[in-house]
Amino acid sequence: SQTIHQWPATLVQPVGSPLSLECTVEGTSNPNLYWYRQAAGRGLQLLFYSVGIGQISSEVPQNLSASRPQDRQFILSSKKLLLSDSGFYLCALGGNTEAFFGQGTRLTVV
Amino acid sequence: KQEVTQIPAALSVPEGENLVLNCSFTDSAIYNLQWFRQDPGKGLTSLLLIQSSQREQTSGRLNASLDKSSGRSTLYIAASQPGDSATYLCAVRPSGGYNKLIFGAGTRLAVHP
Fold first, then answer.
1. What is the percent of chain A where pLDDT is above 90?
2. Are the C-beta atoms of residues A19 and A81 closer than 8 Å to each other?
3. Statement: residue A39 has pLDDT above 70
4. Chain A residue nearest residue B43, CA to CA
5. Closest chain A residue by Cα to residue B10
6. Residue range B39-68, pLDDT digits in tens
7. Concatenated DSSP letters for A15-57?
8. Contact status, residue B22 vs residue B106, Cβ threshold 8 Å
9. What stretch of H or E contains A101?
10. Which of A97, A105, A107 should be substituted to probe chain B, the one whose Cβ sees the most B Cβ atoms within 10 Å?
């Protein structure tokens, strides 16, 4: 069965510091991978998606970037965090069938 | 532009009640629709997936229906239990493109003993 690992579970970072969130998946190959953000009181917003190694598409202009160095690894990064980057970040996999989500990372920028 | 709306935003019911959560979407050109459950501070758990050609799906006490032409889906929960307390999210996958999900804001359900 497919499994998604996200870490860390929680993170508190100062404004201006760098960020790296990692997502790895098991039990599948060549998955479509997604990064979503859930802000307090709001729905999930798609940030990035990837259909393969080195292939990244951005949904919204922002302070974040994504990379896919390996088939089952998806990384969300920032060079300098902003207060507005705070939120709950979720990694997901799926193609045109059922989507599965990781347990998320709670990021608080202070 | 596809938009997904969930009504009500919050719901509080006594244990044992049957309840209906509503989801509506503006563009009927969807590939499928998926219902999720989210517990506080946790990720999303997939509950039911309905393909665009299907009318409903059932899993245990849960039943989800889809009326694509009218842009509506409902999640029916039978004999609710306190353990059902969570936020329920509806998401549609538009036809074509890269299969992203577009989410509603969710319905926060509280089932009290």
1. 76
2. yes
3. yes
4. A103
5. A41
6. 998 999 999 999 999 999 999 999 999 999
7. TT--EEEEEEEES-SS--EEEEEE-TTS-EEEEEEEEETTEEE
8. no
9. strand A100-101
10. A97
